[in-house]
Sequence to fold (644 residues):
Amino acid sequence: MPYGYNGKILHVDLTTARLTVEEPPEVFYRTYLGGSAMGLYYILNEMPKGADALGPQNVLTLMTGVTTGAAISGQSRINANAKSPISGGIGDSQGGGFFPAELKFAGFDGIVITGKAPKPVYLWIKDGFPALRDAGLLVGKLTGEVDSALQAELGDDHIQILQHGPGAEKGILYSSLISMSNRTNGRTGMGLVMASKNLKAVVVRGTKKPLVADARALMALSREGPKLLPGNADMAGLAKYGTASVVLPQHSLGTLPTRNYNEGAFEFSEAISGEKLYDEYLRGAMQGQQDKLGRDTCYACVVRCKRVVESEGKYKVDAKYGGPEYETIGTFGSYCAVSDLAAISRANQVCNEQAIDTIAAGATIAFAMECYEKGIIGNVETGGLELKFGDADAMLQALDEIVTASTPLGKLLGQGSERAAAVWGNGADECLTTVKGAESPAHMPQAKRSLGLIYAVNPFGADHQSSEHDWMIEEGIASDLYMSRLALLGLEERLEPISLGWEKVKFAYLTELFYSMLDSVELCQFVWGPGWTLYGPAETARLLKAVTGWAVTVDELMSVGARRLNLMRVFNAREGLSRKDDKLPKKFYKALQGQGPTAGIALTHQEIESALDIYYKLAEWTNDGIPTRFKLEKLNLAWAAQWL
Fold:
């Protein structure tokens, strides 16, 4: 009997409407643990080389991990993987909330989706019994409307729904998957992939929780985290202010991307801060009830970092659609030089209604603003819209044109900034912040040097949650707690700030492996991690043992992370990606402007190229960034070598 997981994977062939259940052996689960690593196994084995990302041959996997649904914080996560329509390489996106745990309770550890349905359908799973149902009446509805309609149709308010939105139905490239109308698998276009298959939603309801191997050990571990919460400033800030807690620290350190990444400090940062959000915009703020009403959570989590925002002013915001995370505040706020938090919250709602990625949407609009201000485009290209930095109404108008696809500007920006730059020419590429087609998130590699390397090498584009950030090991910031945890990964010395030598590259690589493992076990990086979180590497190994009974070591966890990373690179290599694609945008090599401690700082081509050489050596790949047969065999992945 498996502990922690069901031992069942659901296979859905939408073309034939055939539903089959696979029961992989225990060794399969221990080798991959779930999430991306497990998804890549199916994608590489079932998707032919060169498949169209929006064609029926693309394989979409939705995978939980072996600890999903356990009674402890930070485990209710799900990973979506498929070929990305944005990069042509692997797509990867994680989401939280209650859907992941409910899928596990409904009897399955993951879903492998192939083919294309002849008409819109949704997948309904209840207590181990799957069925495909007609979704014709759901097409075109906002995500919140779909939630309500399905709850009424199925007669159950406790169902959990993962869906694509009307944004994907209009062909917006960076469409996401969303549950609860506010928990998103946001990046790499996974919503568009699901829409291309005529699969509107996956709906789950379950009443059976998997057994755990050692309930007492799990309970003891679950009690340790909350006791650490008040004394961990990073976690306490996250619990009170959500991810927006980092707005002011990022500004003060000069790493808050401003005016489309041209500056690292925003003069109106206080107006868009987590503190401002808490005081004035959380649900219940006017009644002084933020802690009671304004903080939401994922299944069984005590951190409660999700914000619930509402506003009745000029920019109306419905609490149903949650509230803006730090990245959303960055892209629609400081990126666009917009200082109105209500307008930013409204933009967040529009994106969640439509199920599109807030990072890509906000960053694409900021890119267009810079192009407009520099004269690269004019009123002809914008249809008369004056896209100027700082104009909240212009930002929201551009977003409206994107989600309605009602104007040439909106249709073009709905394809992302890189494709818009190719159409506009005239030096527009100088304004891009993209890596592998994906707009960069709101953490600046000019100051966080190793993050710049990770932005370049990450298989699915620039990502801020694929490694630990430089501050966690740098002199003057790294605490004894951080260092004691990093030592378990083989990182023992504090490093010089704004550096990118051998040791900093090693820090990037090893923490990338740990984060890669977290995206396979499907653990939240705000609770489990190698540094600042509630639980560190040792506790992660304890969790696996308590839930599954396996005597897992930190080294074994790192091997799982390496498997996921290598399978992603194998997929990309098979699709034609290599070192030539591990590159940063031109903008990152230009000195930052404005005020703040990072003004005048830039990355250099020489240090990035040198870092790439070191990184590939540490990974035991070729100098072109391709995994070797030797490395794959070392990781028990010899089966994947056929695609090298």
Summary: The radius of gyration is 23 Å.
